[in-house]
Amino acid sequence: MTVSAALAQRLTELAATPRLLVALDFDGTLAPEVDDPENARALPEARAAILRLVARPDTRVALVSGRAMASLQHVAEAPDSVLLVGSHGVEFRLDSPDVTLDQSEDERKQVGRLGDVLEAVAARFDQVWVEIKPAGFALHTRLASDEDSRATHEAALAETAHIDGLTVREGKNVIEFSLRSATKGDALRHLAEFTGATAVFYAGDDVTDEDAFRVLGPADLGLKCGLGATAAGFSVANPGEVAGVLADLASLREEQAILPS
Ligand SMILES: O=P(O)(O)OC[C@H]1O[C@H](O[C@H]2O[C@H](CO)[C@@H](O)[C@H](O)[C@H]2O)[C@H](O)[C@@H](O)[C@@H]1O
Q1: Which PANTHER family match (predicted)?
Q2: Most buried residue, 55, 56, 86, 197, by most Cβ within 10 Å?
Q3: Closest C-alpha residue for ligand 1 atom 7
Q4: What DSSP designation does 237 have?
C-alpha cells in the first residue's frame, strides 16, 4: 500500500524504537462493521500483520476494545501473547489467562438494576437490543429506524438520569452505560507502562478512541480510521488501509533485524 510521505517517515522512525507497543481498537478498525457483533472478525490482512508484529522481539501488540473481554476473546481469536483490554479499559488480560476485574457485591447489584432499566427501554422499540458487559450495558440500534434510534437514546438517557456515577458513551449505532469511568486513554497509559514501551502506535475509529489518541506523546503515532475530526496525527479511510499500514510497520520492524547496529 502507498502511504503519504509523512506517514511513511513516521512509521520508519517508530519501527526503529527499542521497545514498540502496537495498540489497536477492534471494531471498525481491524474488523469491518457487521450487524451481529459476534460475527465481526479482523480482516485477514490485519491479522497477518499482527502475527508478524508479535513475532518480532521487543514488540508487543494489544487490542483495546469497548467489548466485554469474553466477547473480545471470541471475535479476536488472538494468540496469548497479544494483550487484551475490554470494556473500554475496565478489563485486562496481560500475559496471564486471568482477567482482572475487581467487582464488589454492591456494584454487581447496581449493574443488575441498570440492566433492568435498559432492558425495559429496549423492549419499547423494534430492533433495539442490549449487550451485557461486566460493569454496564450497550444499547444497540444499528438495525432500528432513525426515529426509533433517536427515541431510544432519549429514553435511555431520561430513564438513567437518576443513577449516580454513570458514564455514558455514544458510539456507532450504540449508546453505552457503565458504572466505571475508565477510558481507553487510561488503558493505553497502563499498557505502555506494563510493556516498557519506548514508543506507541495506536489505531482507532470511534469517539472513545480519541481518549487514547490524546495521551500519545511526541514519539508515538496515532492513526484514525475513517472521516472526522481527530486528535490522531494521521488518518486513513477504512480497515483495509489500516491493515496496509500495519503490514508496512511489520516490514519495517523486520528490517530492523538485518540493519547493522
Ligand atoms: O472499541 P471497539 O473494539 O471498536 O468496540 C466498540 C463497540 O463495538 C461493537 O459494536 C460495534 O460493532 C458491531 C460489529 O461490527 C456493530 O454491530 C455495532 O453497531 C457497533 O456499535 C460492540 O458490540 C460494542 O460492545 C463495542 O463497545
Answers
A1: TREHALOSE 6-PHOSPHATE PHOSPHATASE (PTHR43768)
A2: 86
A3: 66
A4: S
Residue whose grid cell is 506507541:
200
Q: Is the CB of 35 under 6 A from ligand 1?
A: yes
Taking only the tens place, the pLDDT of each residue in 106-153 is 888 999 999 999 999 999 999 999 999 999 999 999 999 999 999 999
The three cell numbers locating residue 134:
461486566
pLDDT at 258 > cutoff 90? no
Per-residue pLDDT reduced to its tens digit, 6-17: 999 999 999 999
Active site residue ranges: 25
| Closest residue by CA, ligand 1 atom 25 | 67
* Spatial distance between the Cα atoms of 194 and 185, rounded to a whole number of angstroms: 14
- Bridge partners for 180 per DSSP: none
d(CA 94, CA 192): 12
Q: What is the CA(18)–ligand 1 centre distance, in A?
A: 33
The domains located in the chain, with CATH, are: 5-89+183-256 (3.40.50.1000), 105-178 (3.30.70.1020)
| Mutation probe of ligand 1 site: the residue of 27, 29, 35, 167 with most atoms within 8 A of C-beta | 27
ipTM entry: 0.97
Closest residue by Cα to atom 5, ligand 1, is: 66
pTM of the full structure: 0.95
Q: Which three cell numbers stand for residue 205?
A: 475509529
